[in-house]
Amino acid sequence: MSDDFDPARVVDGLIRLLTVEQVGDDSFVGAPQKDGIGRVFGGQVIAQALQAAQGTVGEGKHAHSLHAYFLRGGEEGTPIDYATARDFEGRSFANRRVVASQNGKPILNLTASFQAPEEGLEHDDYAMPDVPGPEGLKSDMEIRRKVVEARGDRMSEQQKKLMTRPRPIEMRTTDKLHWMNSEPKPPMAHSWFRTVAPLPDDAALHRAIIAYASDYTLLGTSALPHGLSWMRGELVGASLDHAIWFHREARADEWLLYATESPWSGSGRGYNRGRIFNQKGELIASVAQEGMMRRRKGKDEA
What we know:
- This protein is an alpha+beta fold.
- The chain contains six helices and twelve strands.
- It has a twelve-stranded antiparallel sheet.
- The longest helix is centred in the N-terminal third of the chain and has 13 residues, at about 40-55.
C-alpha cells in the first residue's frame, strides 16, 4: 500500500459513493466510483439501490431483507438511476421495489422489506465457525501486493492497478484465496472484514456497507472445488441474483466474519450461501447468491 494512503479519505469516498442523490419523490441517482475500471461492482449497485429504498421509508422502520436480480452488467463512469415504487406501507412492515437503470436500460431489480422494531421469540441455531481472529491475519491487500511483486511481469498495467488500488474495506482471509490457489478444496471460505476507518453513527449506512461487502468472495466460493480462478482468466462469471436477511444491527467499521459455502454448482451456475457474524459470535446477517460460472474456452476449443 502506498505511503500516501489515507484510510479516512478512502472511507469518505465509499460513503459518498453510497449516498444516492434524491432527484424526485421516488427517484435517486447514484454516482459512479471514482477511477472505476470496467464493469460496476455488483455490491455497489445493491447498496445504492438499498439506499434509494431506505430513502423513501421513515425512521420508524428498518430494512430486514432484500432480494435482487442482476439483469445487465453496469458500466463504470456513468451514473445509475434508481426508480423506487412504494408497493406496501403497513403499521409494522413496508415494501419497496427499485429498478436500477443506466443509459435507459435496467441493470438490476431489487425488492426490500422493512419492519418496525419489536420484541419476538428468539433462537440462534448457528454457531460462529472456529477460525482464527482477524488480529493475527495478513490483510488481503498485503497478499495482493506480494502477488503483483512476484507475478507483475505477467500482468497488464490495468490488472496491477486493479489489484493494488486502495480499498475502503479491509479483508483478512483465514483460508487460501481461490485466485491464488489452483488446488481444489472444499467449497468453504472465511474472511473478516471492516472499513479501514470509522463510520458515522448511521444504521442505514452500516446496512448499506454490509450489503456492499456481501458481494465480496461469495461467487468465488463455488470455484474452490474446481481449482479455477477468474483472476487467472480460467473462468467467465457474473452474479445473477443476491439476497440478504439482516438479523441484528451491526457496525461495518468493526470486525465481522463472513463465512461462505457453496452447496452446489452445475449447468453453468454456482450457488453460494453466506453467514455474517459479529465478534461476539452473534449471527447478524445471512446471504444467498447464484452466479453464472463457466470455464473459459481456450483458443483451440473456441
